[in-house]
Design brief:
By secondary structure, the chain is α+β, with helices and mostly antiparallel strands. The protein has two helices and seven strands. The protein has a domain of 65 residues.
Length: 134
């Protein structure tokens, strides 16, 4: 039988875990990378792949035209002030069909991703980003 911890010790323990998780999250944010492979897009933390999306699942790559809620999109943002770096990847299926990323040079990354998808799947693989958003 174990005795419950006094409230002060328990709250200090929880505060230590919370602060440790925040520090880990801040360190990870600075090291997050977006990688364009031969047939998939990957979000990586060092050598660890956190998220992989095959090119066949990607419908559109564009700058978001409106502010999407954090609760309606899958977020892989690597910076805090992301308004000029935000790029949206729309998928065919999944719980969250919109994925938000923050590459350093948004338009260059968008073009590189489009070229990789078109080389992998064919000329008419993506919807134009200039089309009106739903």
């Amino acid at each position: 039988m174990t005795l419950p911890l006094p409230p002060l010790r328990e709250s200090l323990w929880l505060a230590g875990i919370a602060s440790g998780l925040i520090v880990l999250w801040l360190l990870a944010k600075g090291r997050m990378e977006y990688h364009i492979g031969k047939n998939a897009f990957r979000v990586r933390l060092g050598r660890l792949t956190l998220r992989r999306i095959p090119f066949s699942e990607i419908v559109r790559v564009s700058k978001p035209r409106r502010n999407h809620s954090w609760f309606t999109t899958e977020n892989w943002r690597s910076v805090f002030r992301d308004s000029h770096r935000l790029l949206m990847i729309e998928r065919r299926s999944g719980v969250f069909r919109r994925l938000m990323i923050t590459p350093r040079h948004r338009y260059e990354f968008q073009e590189r991703l489009r070229i990789a998808i078109q080389e992998s799947l064919g000329a008419e693989a993506l919807v134009n980003a200039d089309d009106e958003e739903e």
